[in-house]
Protein: Asp/Glu/hydantoin racemase
Amino acid sequence: MKILVINPNISESVSTLIEAEARRSASPGTEIEVATAPFGVAYIETRFEALVGAYATASVAAERHGSYDGVVVAAFGDPGLQGIKELIDVPAVGLTESSLMTAATLGQRFSIIAISPRIKAWYRETVERSHLASRLASIRALEEPLLDIGSVQQDYAGRLKALCNQVVDDDGADVIIIAGAPLAGLAREIRNELPVPVVDGVSSAIAQLEGLLRLSPKKRRAAVSHGRQSS
Amino acid sequence: MKILVINPNISESVSTLIEAEARRSASPGTEIEVATAPFGVAYIETRFEALVGAYATASVAAERHGSYDGVVVAAFGDPGLQGIKELIDVPAVGLTESSLMTAATLGQRFSIIAISPRIKAWYRETVERSHLASRLASIRALEEPLLDIGSVQQDYAGRLKALCNQVVDDDGADVIIIAGAPLAGLAREIRNELPVPVVDGVSSAIAQLEGLLRLSPKKRRAAVSHGRQSS
Amino acid sequence: MKILVINPNISESVSTLIEAEARRSASPGTEIEVATAPFGVAYIETRFEALVGAYATASVAAERHGSYDGVVVAAFGDPGLQGIKELIDVPAVGLTESSLMTAATLGQRFSIIAISPRIKAWYRETVERSHLASRLASIRALEEPLLDIGSVQQDYAGRLKALCNQVVDDDGADVIIIAGAPLAGLAREIRNELPVPVVDGVSSAIAQLEGLLRLSPKKRRAAVSHGRQSS
Amino acid sequence: MKILVINPNISESVSTLIEAEARRSASPGTEIEVATAPFGVAYIETRFEALVGAYATASVAAERHGSYDGVVVAAFGDPGLQGIKELIDVPAVGLTESSLMTAATLGQRFSIIAISPRIKAWYRETVERSHLASRLASIRALEEPLLDIGSVQQDYAGRLKALCNQVVDDDGADVIIIAGAPLAGLAREIRNELPVPVVDGVSSAIAQLEGLLRLSPKKRRAAVSHGRQSS
Amino acid sequence: MKILVINPNISESVSTLIEAEARRSASPGTEIEVATAPFGVAYIETRFEALVGAYATASVAAERHGSYDGVVVAAFGDPGLQGIKELIDVPAVGLTESSLMTAATLGQRFSIIAISPRIKAWYRETVERSHLASRLASIRALEEPLLDIGSVQQDYAGRLKALCNQVVDDDGADVIIIAGAPLAGLAREIRNELPVPVVDGVSSAIAQLEGLLRLSPKKRRAAVSHGRQSS
Amino acid sequence: MKILVINPNISESVSTLIEAEARRSASPGTEIEVATAPFGVAYIETRFEALVGAYATASVAAERHGSYDGVVVAAFGDPGLQGIKELIDVPAVGLTESSLMTAATLGQRFSIIAISPRIKAWYRETVERSHLASRLASIRALEEPLLDIGSVQQDYAGRLKALCNQVVDDDGADVIIIAGAPLAGLAREIRNELPVPVVDGVSSAIAQLEGLLRLSPKKRRAAVSHGRQSS
Structure:
């Protein structure tokens, strides 16, 4: 099966991180193709940036339609995911939705670790959209301005682990979601040093999409709607 | 003051309905300018169509930035509204948000009258986004395929009024929201024949935007974010 | 149009503050008349005091019935508002309801700044009544016993501004509601020094009532009920 | 111990029904005194009527203060209960609160049987105030205009029992609350003919108040507030 | 009337505390019999331990069926309560359910004082099951490892009282629930030193069960189901 | 990897259905072992029966501990799942939790098709435990008494498909969950005849467990608790 992973951000360095984790997570025989948004921002942090990323991501999904068996929207916040599910006739998943579902299976209350305070509002609303906000213990983020979006994991390794311990000890989380494509793969690195399960968005999305493709449930009805799409 | 009313749909006939009701509702001295989305669908009914409309609407708001004192997103579901609020440094309102706030002031439980069953899911989620879903008595819609989006009010006048009475008698609504730009102005026509207040999106949006402009609260912080917008 | 603004508290000094802000906020041609509750407490802080204020306010609204086009219940917590809406056949708004609706249009999560800790429970329940509690970031209040209910703004200017910054930085509010008639007008003073929009109850109520009167939706059904009122 | 049962309605015939059921429910040694509101309506059905009843009930509780060990607010909807709890330094309970707590102990989802459709909104809001709305299966009411508030039980016995069966079979209720003082005692009559537990407001209130008096927990803090009550 | 109080834990020392408080709370003429779980853990703190306690408790209730008029499940978290209600044809109550209902009658927001941090998740879920989580101000617990489950009250008296004051001052609780059988009776000791009502699980359960037995509502329908129980 | 699938019911005929669907769903290389509860009921429909099934299921999981890489609790309602997750140090999933997570990825509002009306309450509470009740469109069930738990699919094929269409057309579901082990595999049969995706519990559980095992997140902290388990 072939999975198209779309990075709604324009940063190639983040696409590289996403691709690495996606390949590490994929089952043998799963082909991974990564695409980067042709326009938008380096890293989506606000509702407006998500609006732009949604359109860019849907455009990529539409252009390559027919060339893949499933799509991963590879930015936390899942820009455009709900619309893309209607647009295409194969399964689509997002980093947030997959992380939440995985976390909800591993524990009862989860916290989200993010890389910037500005992003918290947008993340909270994404959780609310899934109706799981009452299981959200907290969202904690790096306070520092980032040096380089491509090397966040290296630059703030200690601080990120400290935040993980904080959400368990102070906020009562029994699962941790490491949010955002720039942190793709970090969960794999640090999970053995943490007292509760740690969820990574990219690997959760790949695992769930593979599961959906194996279950191959019927396409959702609303999909027909984009037939009325004009220009 | 000058208000830019953006129709996220590409249908000029609907823009005409919107403009007429906007002018009827505006205070003396308020200038109304109506713009129609340059691309998208004739009438947004799904999440994907809303995603496209959101981008089209934000584009218009960005292009004309500086030429208006406030913006109305003139489609029920408010495509792009949250992002546009961050994008521009003047107030922006939407038909749904304004209708809900007006309804919430007039009563405790409201119902929404829509023109198509396909649109219900998208409307429900818009109400959930405002956290007022627990005050939503029901959403009822015309079942018939529409003859002409520009003449829905004339074509289905009787059926629409019947739906209004149904939500009061069967669903316990104490306020009715007539949803969707194609029905702009209908509330004005039928409100004296109905037992509870009837809310119109366009006139609510104009009234609330004028109110906000008079109060002129400070711009919201997140606005600075679009400064990081790239291409 | 003529608006009757009723202060559910017996403090004339607060009525003066309310009247000043109401006049500043009213459109040209809007006549403002302010009435003070004939009995009750100096400043409502508890459910029992609100019960008394509700009856006093409804009495004033009933006695002057016919002499106004709309009513503002001018105490945070809106004592008696829901009942008064049924009692009279013209629109009625309250400081809390109007503040919440304005805040909900300006942002996603709001905090309330109050003048006394004792009042927090009553304020929280008022927000719950509107079903918007899940958008309430926090309620913060002055801890000090007040010197004079009529000069709170002057006496605690610095502390109040500090609380405003706290709810933004610590609680994640993207809108601030300055609560309580004794603070009427303060938002106007300090909004340019704060990073997010600041909402004032009195001016929000005037703006929304003027909007409702322009929209003139039909009276709500339940109003007929007070016909069965006996003595 | 002496319990003051206050009927917030002015109808003596209903006070008689309340008194009979209160005496049937009281433990040996419990003295029951029933007072009727000095002003208000024959039967509270709206928010405005509840506002008047709240003030009348609180007045009675205040006037007789010192002469009782506990108070029952004997109308469904509990007009004034929250305020009265602050006003007096002994326990106060209401028909709705007591019915809901009893029902919540007997089952998971309850329905309310009421005597008039007009009353539904006010009842729903009372349930919301207790935060138990998500356990409310339905509210069903007699549709017929009442012949005599004092003889509703006799006049509509069959119809009321039919409603009880409907909420079990159609709405999934596993407990039934017979609401409103005019139906006091009916549960006792029909419970053996119904498949699930049936809760009566008056007897629940008496039982819970006796329990509270035996537990004699400390008075709630807010009570001190009415000390600031002026005239 | 005879009440069977079942301690779902295997600790006899806790059964002794439970029995003492149950006898102090019971009305004259009420016979109290206490049974200790034949297997399980010394003190239930997790979902798995609750699962075992639920089965052990239900077994005791089944074995002694016919010998009692009502059952109290005497561990906070009410292990097995919902199932036991279906199993037996007389009323059953639990410490948590009774505490919550009593607290909900005494105030609007309650906090829970627990004896171990590990127990918090299980307690929170028990509150969620009752749908009253939105009235939960906080859960605070002793941090120290316990010296002896039978002497927690003596060993940590000061710390427990400090926690009680904290939930009032910092968390806004207007009622305190002292949770867990090992603290049975503590409320009685300290309530006069605290500013808000303090609720004890055992005494609340006895009072409510006596009330239910006096009201004797009909058995709940689902009870018949255990007839299909096999081995 | 080896998966232990535990049927919390004692019916071997249902175990056979579960095993067949589990094998159809498993990836190559996944070994499936099915165990049947040693005691309990033929088919869990109530909270009490779930309590017994939980203990029986946990016992099997404990006895075979070390012989499997993951566990599936193979009854809708997930009896004992939360406790088993704490008990064992490898992942555990349940039919309901897996169905809900899969459904939440495929659509926004789901309905549940059940085989008996008696089971509805227990199913609703299981959905509430996951906090997804606000996305539950409806639960519809066969009304007829079942002929044979092992042949429900054959005996009621037409009726079950009719219920599926009803939840889409009347209740607004955009995903259907076919609930209960006796219906294992039915989704596979009928999904091409239905307008929206259809989710099967057993196959969802296998797919999600395989995904979790591939992600191998760390064991949850609470697991240590069962170390204190005594007898």
